[in-house]
Amino acid sequence: MKTVQNTLILLSIAITIASCSYFERKKNPIYTQAVGQYEKDPEGALMLLDSLMRGTLQEETLASAFYLKGLILKRSGALHLAAEAYKKSLHYWKELENPQWISYTVENLGNVYMDGGMWQEALDLYSKSDENSPYLDYNKGRALAHLQNYTEAQEHYFAAELAWRGNRDKGKDLIDLYNQMGIMYKKLHLYENSEKYLYYGLVQSDNLENYLKSELYINLSNTFYKQGRIDESLESYKNVLAYADSSLYVLAFYRIGDLYREMAQEDSALVYYGRAVRHYEGTHHDEYVNSINHIINHHAAAGQYDSMMVYSMALNETAVGVMKFREEMQAQLQQLQVIISEAEHRHTVTMLEKDEQIRQILYGALVALMVLCLGLYRLRHRLGGVQYKLLLKTKTNQDCLIEQQGQTIKQLREALSK
Question: Is the pLDDT assigned to residue 177 strictly greater than 50?
Answer without folding.
Answer: yes
